[in-house]
Here is the input.
Amino acid sequence: MIAPIDITGQRFGRLTVVGRAPSDARGQAMWQCRCDCGSNHIAVGRVLRDGRSRSCGCLLQEVVGQQFRTHGATVGGKGPEYRTWAGMRNRCANPKAMYKHWHGRGIKVCDRWASFENFLADMGPHPGRGYSLDRIDVDGDYEPENCRWATRHEQANNRTNSFRVVIAGKLTSVTEASRRFGVKPATAYRRITKAGWEAEAAVQTPAYSKRVRVVKGKKIDEPR
Here is the structure.
């Protein structure tokens, strides 16, 4: 196993790394940090390096507090943050809400995010129009280390490249399998996740549209 890069002494936002902490259950490198507010905080190394962890939580709490004070857009189901949190929980718990594509695949919401306040503190305010909640590892759970605000384009690239299916007994990506059969990856992914198609049918069934040809002076619609 390759030893993680030593980031002791480095500063990330309000956090200063003071040393290693025991790795988590997935084997990810964890680091003990000291926040400017005086609190101790343990964070995943890659989360620190990509800028998703900049404080022990105090920074986001300040932002959230200001948001509550100024317009209260995140409470009572009024704002995008609350709607996102509620939708996430519904997808993983409601059998009528495409349950098989989330909880039915073993995808869960972490215990910490049973609280909307914790979700908001970890994710921060919604960045704006065009952004929604995205899981970095599409087979992973909804949890702080695996979620980000992302555009539809970013999410489509992430999902079609990472979503895995079994075709003819072989594990492959939706992108690879669909392109092999001449189907757009986005079409195959949408069939599987939105329409509930079986993976093989989704990647092998061509998309049809109508074209018009003239036979003996008459227009005839035929699929292509």
Notes: The chain is about 35% helix and 20% strand. Residues 69-73, 209-217, 219-224 have pLDDT under 50 and may be disordered.
